Amino acid sequence: MNGYQMPNNGWNQQMMPSNGWWDNNNNGQWWMNGQIPMNNNNNNGPQPFPDFEGMLPIEQSYIENILRLNSGKRARVYMTFENNPEWTAQVFEGIVEEAGRDHIVLSDPDNDTWYLLLMVYLDYVTFDEEIEYDYPFNDIDPAEALAQQGGPTG
After folding, report:
1. Residue ranges covered by each domain of the chain
2. Which residues in 10-149 belong to E strands, given as ranges?
3. What's the Cα-to-Cα distance from 20 to each of 26, 28, 68, 129, rounded to whole Å?
4. Taking 60 as the threshold, does the pLDDT of residue 137 lie above it?
5. Which residues contact 34 (CB under 8 A, 6 or more apart)?
6. Residue 127: which residues within 8 A CB-CB, separation 6 or more?
7. H/E element holding 128?
8. In DSSP terms, which residues pair with 122 in a beta bridge?
9. Backbone phi, psi, residue 129, to 5°
10. Is 127 within 8 Å of 71 (Cβ atoms)?
11. Residue 134's pLDDT band (boundaries 50, 70, 90)?
12. Most buried among 34, 35, 95, 99, by the most CB within 10 A?
């Protein structure tokens, strides 16, 4: 031992019992003896959601995708910066250029300014025109797409 001793507050005994093992190669999970991790996709990531033509996976239905559908539209982005006495709330106006899971890129052509805004501060977004919300599914019935791909049918 190197002279450092972990404090004994009961946490280790409760959270990580001694009859198991930590697997860094399988998404960093704790396994109890007798459990066998299953990984059939020959990589160490999670199983992907099946891709069917014209459909987005369920896990991609986030706000950044709604913003992407409305790319090129003028928007007002309302944000709150807590614990900042100078900027408690701010409104940014501009054209939606890009959106990611944690950010929005706006351009303001009126003053040649570009904004990189963090989603963590986002309250809401308004548009002057109708919000595009539906994903373009290429007029494919999801049940029909599943059947064509050999997926489960109802």
Report:
1. 57-154
2. 20-23, 29-32, 74-80, 89-99, 103-108, 113-118, 122-127
3. 14, 13, 44, 57
4. no
5. none
6. 70, 73, 74, 75, 76
7. none
8. 79
9. -130, 175
10. no
11. confident
12. 99
Residues comprising the chain, all counted: 154
Round to the nearest angstrom and report the end-to-end CA distance of the chain.
Answer: 60
Would you tell me how many other CB atoms lie within 10 Å of the CB of residue 70?
A: 19
Sign of the alpha-carbon dihedral angle for 122, 127, 131, 135: negative
What does the alpha-carbon distance between residue 22 and residue 31 come to, in Å, rounded to a whole number? 6
Identity of the residue numbered 40: N
* The token pair that represents 70 in the structure block: 């409305």
> Is residue 52 scored above 90 in pLDDT?
no
Of 85, 87, 89, 88, residue with least CA distance to 76: 89
CA–CA dist 87, 4 (Å, integer): 44
Residue 65 phi/psi, 5° resolution?
-70, -35
- Which tokens is 57 given? 């996976």
- Side by side, the strands of the sheet bearing 74-80 are 113-118, 103-108, 89-99, 74-80, 122-127
In angstroms, the CA 31 to CA 10 distance is: 20
List the CATH code of the domain at 57-154.
2.30.30.100
